[in-house]
């Protein structure tokens, strides 16, 4: 941080110099002294970080100068130093925007020092918050969503349209296709980006808690409501509320949600007072909501209310070469994060990635690549480092063809690998005789290669 510029206005030259000397003992402060209000005012173009004003200056009162400064430079904090303690004047000055009111006595210079130090710390925090905000914006910038397939490019176009308007957005896509990423990209590219993005996953919260989580509750509204709590709608005020897994919401809650969306106000549980809300809704689901409507599991009126601008996120297996673009991106990102050298993916490994059907989509690809980077040697990911996780292997397992006997053998093989080839333990777990396992090993129907 640069030097902290302090302007002092003090008509008593000796006292002014004393204050300047004292404050200048802090090497971070750059102090400039003025003996009149006009002189100080004419120098404001130098943008001081803080101003300390004597209340009685020769050419104008401290209150008058405070007003002039606040009108033109409302962000500069102003401290008033006064020869007399007058509570009414102090309160009025604070109301008009003064940061502090200090009475002249033997402690003035220390109090002024402390007050300026507080202002400086707040300024530092503000800079830090602005920096983090900027970082978040960059992080969820569009460029964060990788891919150049026609399918993803048409998604980009829709994100752009959504960001430019306030329309409700509904995102449909299988698990791990990037629904939350898209919701964030819309928010952080929209006029609401400086306000909160609040994500709420309906499937992750027990249904009896959803209502109070979304709409809030008053103290004592129900057993366990030990204090007042604002809901997600209020939390997202001015910003965006991302309702993930909307298809999992129970019918009676759907009716309540619909009312909130229609009235644009929420009533906390245990209260009668409606609270106006202004938040943009983005919802997401992996279910086909039209089917849910047909089956009577999702209200038709809510469906139309939420549909807004629909964005369909294609599964990874339909994005062609994006699989490789994403894999290279994750490999670079992961290597950088772990301060490793660049890792490349061999053509054979790329083919293996392209052949797989990615039931967990981009999330799964990310996990597979991260593991492959860790396992890689000599800066290369080869075919053998590409391993699909066990849950996916199970998915694959059901997609494979085979007799019941083939499936049984695979299950035994899987358990043996999982339990470090301990035949007794596996026999117990699967409730089969250990001789069955030994027979399969002997007949080479299953293999033991620790
Ligand atoms: N196109 C993409 N480019 C880069 N990273 C992506 C992309 N799509 C998804 N990801 C990453 O994949 C992971 C899963 O994405 P996200 O959580 O947005 O998926 P989701 O569809 O919301 O998942 P779920 O259905 O489980 O809620 C995240 O780490 C995200 O950053």
TrEMBL record:
UniProt name for this protein: DNA-binding NtrC family response regulator
InterPro entries named in the record: AAA+_ATPase, AAA_lid_NorR, CheY-like_superfamily, Homeodomain-like_sf, P-loop_NTPase, Sig_transdc_resp-reg_receiver, Sigma_54_int, Sigma_54_int_dom_ATP-bd_2
Modified residues (4-aspartylphosphate): 54
Annotated signal peptide: none
Protein source organism: Schleiferia thermophila
Keyword Transcription regulation: yes
UniProt entry keywords in alphabetical sequence: ATP-binding, DNA-binding, Nucleotide-binding, Phosphoprotein, Transcription, Transcription regulation
A Pfam family hit: AAA_lid_14
Domain Response regulatory: 5-119
Gene3D superfamilies reported in the protein's UniProt record: 1.10.8.60, 3.40.50.2300, Homeodomain-like (1.10.10.60), P-loop containing nucleotide triphosphate hydrolases (3.40.50.300)
């Amino acid at each position: 941080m640069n030097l902290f510029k302090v302007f002092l206005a003090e008509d008593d030259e000796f006292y002014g110099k004393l204050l300047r000397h004292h404050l200048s003992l802090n090497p971070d402060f750059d102090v400039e002294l003025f003996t009149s209000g006009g002189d100080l005012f004419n120098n404001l173009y130098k943008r001081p970080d803080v101003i300390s004003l004597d209340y009685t200056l020769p050419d104008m009162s401290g209150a008058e100068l405070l007003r002039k400064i606040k009108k033109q430079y409302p962000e500069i904090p102003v401290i008033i130093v006064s020869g007399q303690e007058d509570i009414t004047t102090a309160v009025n000055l604070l109301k008009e925007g003064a940061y502090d009111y200090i009475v002249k006595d033997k402690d003035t210079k220390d109090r002024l020092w402390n007050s300026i130090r507080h202002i400086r710390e707040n300024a530092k925090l503000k800079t830090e918050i602005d920096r983090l905000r900027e970082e978040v914006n960059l992080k969820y910038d569009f460029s964060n969503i990788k891919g150049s397939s026609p399918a993803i490019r048409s998604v980009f176009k829709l994100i752009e349209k959504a960001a430019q308007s306030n329309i409700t957005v509904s995102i449909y896509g299988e698990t791990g296709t990037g629904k939350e990423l898209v919701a964030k990209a819309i928010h952080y590219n929209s006029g609401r980006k400086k306000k909160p993005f609040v994500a709420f996953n309906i499937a992750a919260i027990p249904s009896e808690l959803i209502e109070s989580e979304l709409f809030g509750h008053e103290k004592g509204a129900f057993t366990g409501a030990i204090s007042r709590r604002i809901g997600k709608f209020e939390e997202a005020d001015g910003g965006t509320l991302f309702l993930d897994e909307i298809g999992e919401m129970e019918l009676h809650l759907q009716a309540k949600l619909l009312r909130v969306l229609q009235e644009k106000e929420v009533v906390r549980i245990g209260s009668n007072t409606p609270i106006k809300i202004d938040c943009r809704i983005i919802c997401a689901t992996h279910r086909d909501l039209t089917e849910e409507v047909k089956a009577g599991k999702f209200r038709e009126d809510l469906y139309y209310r939420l549909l807004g601008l629909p964005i369909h996120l294609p599964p990874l297996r339909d994005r062609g070469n994006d699989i490789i673009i994403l894999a290279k991106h994750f490999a670079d990102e992961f290597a950088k994060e772990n301060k490793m050298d660049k890792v490349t993916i061999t053509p054979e490994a790329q083919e293996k990635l392209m052949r797989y059907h990615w039931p967990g989509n981009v999330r799964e690809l990310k996990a597979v690549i991260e593991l492959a980077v860790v396992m890689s040697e000599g800066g290369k990911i080869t075919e053998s480092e590409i391993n699909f996780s066990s849950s996916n292997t199970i998915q694959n397992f059901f997609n494979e063809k085979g007799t019941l006997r083939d499936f049984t053998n695979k299950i035994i093989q899987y358990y043996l690998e999982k339990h470090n080839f301990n035949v007794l333990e596996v026999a117990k777990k699967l409730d089969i005789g250990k001789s069955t396992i030994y027979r399969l090993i002997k007949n080479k129907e299953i293999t033991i290669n620790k």
